[in-house]
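Hi there,

I know you've been waiting on this one. I reran it after we fixed the sequence typo, so this is the corrected version. Both the input and the resulting structure follow.
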Amino acid sequence: MLHQIDPEAHGPQGAAMADAVSTCVHCGFCLAACPTYQELGQEADSPRGRIILMKEVLEGKLDLEEAATHTDRCLGCLACEPACPSGVPYGELISPFRALTDKQRKKKPADRLRRRMAQSTLPYPTRFRLAAMPGRLAKRFSFLVPSALRGMLDLLPDRLPPKQSWKPLYPAIGERRGRVALLTGCAQSVLAPDINTATIEVLTRNGVDVVVPQSQVCCGALSWHVGNLSAAQAFARKNLRAFPTDVDAVVTNAAGCGSGIHEYGLICRGTPHEEDAEAFAKRTVDISVFLDQLGTLSPIPESKRSWRVTYHDACHLASAQNVKQQPRRLISQIPGVELQEIAGAHLCCGSAGTYNIDQPEIAASLGTQKAENVVATEPDVVATGNIGCLTQLQLHLRKRGSDVPVKHTMQLLRDAYQGHSLSAEDN
């Protein structure tokens, strides 16, 4: 029987950590669902193993550095949660644990450099774009780049898409069916801004007003998942001020962002903003959920051919938000679509925020396996609901020699509305 952790000894998030630890009965159902356990085969790299390690650290029975190697390898994909018969809220343990122990860690200089580079650029679109431009040139001379930064270079496209910006309001077309506020994201708005443009077009075509708050910032997930609590709280506070309350929903089109916002109550626990953060989280839904609840889509033009569309479940949609059938139902409304499923769909592709930067070898192996499973479905196009997954799939499909395009679900719908080829790489 695990001993209860004293919540008062571990800050406002301590109660959540205590609950996660005490709920685990070590049954082992999580093992088959955990990508790192499947990859490494070590009990310490499984959810129940990490829970024991974190418990021992919190109770002062184990040195932090002995546990950190294994907790660092956790993707935070939360595939263990739906697999757990005891309902262990693992997500309420791993991120708070990282936040609690972050300042106590003895990080190598290379790790500190990589973390600093990622945290000071990715959440800020202007900085990220400026940093990405010389980064693409550095790819040609990667042998001169410190190994700690090569993983970041691999993720950069050879050519950044043109910069896009969005007006404060996009009125509904035809009969008005709703009004939403859109989170445009940070890295996504640089790497694939067309996802936001496609999202706005699909929403307005379906009678929805789209508000784009101009003072919004990164959702904070990139900071929260690596233990930078103060930065995550700062981002959350800014978004609480930036987003209006007179909307039917706050809509996200990146699984990681939506999952991060759903944790705002935990992130802001013990602060004056906790109640507002919880309310904001409840108003936030993934775009596929909002459209699915809206009902039948506006008519999509008939297609002259069939399309094999393989759908990839983003972990922070399927596992963290329990969003599985909604995007499939939306895609199935496109005339001519044959929806394909991937073997091992519940296993993470290896993206997981900055994981493919922090743990490049494990991320690469998971990405390679996912690409193999995708190719086996012989798709015309791959659809997903997260920019990190999209980038990871593109990278490893290209490494495998596949030119199958990877698109966001909203891009697929937008292209169908416009009568474009669903498998075209560029629009």
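Quick highlight: The longest helix spans residues 360-375.

Best,
R. S.
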